[in-house]
Specification:
Elements lengths: L1 E7 L5 H10 L6 E6 L1 H8 L4 H9 L7 E9 L1 H15 L8 E7 L10
Antiparallel strand pairs: 1-3, 1-4, 2-3
């Protein structure tokens, strides 16, 4: 089992992505509203010269809302999800699209295997 995390920066695609994931039998997951860390730094530390400079240099470029989608899946489903996310989001090497990664799970209990 793997823990799959998708940080979706194109939040307007979240509904389409959920529908496409359901079509490949991925029905269980968690979605969290999130903000980029750059956004938090730019609003909290404006009085500190270094961060104020950082904020003005990146003015709204990375200060965005995002969605974090989390799943516990077997390897076969992860491959299908990766393909689906790329089909919906596009090239994730492009800025402001999405970030996706997995972490191994050494213990799990109570997860629906379907």
């Amino acid at each position: 089992m793997e823990f799959l995390i998708i940080i979706l920066k194109k939040i307007e695609l979240v509904d389409e992505l959920i529908i496409k994931l359901q079509e490949i039998d991925v029905h269980h997951g968690t979605i969290i509203d999130a903000k980029s860390m750059t956004s938090a730094l730019s609003t909290k530390w404006t009085d500190v010269p270094m961060f104020g400079l950082f904020r003005s240099a990146n003015n709204h470029e990375y200060n965005e809302d995002c969605k974090m989608l989390m799943f516990v899946l077997d390897q076969e489903r992860i491959e299908k999800v990766k393909e689906t996310v790329e089909a919906v989001v596009g090239d994730m090497d492009q800025p402001k699209t999405a970030v996706m990664f997995t972490m191994p799970i050494s213990f799990e209990k109570g997860f629906d295997k379907n």
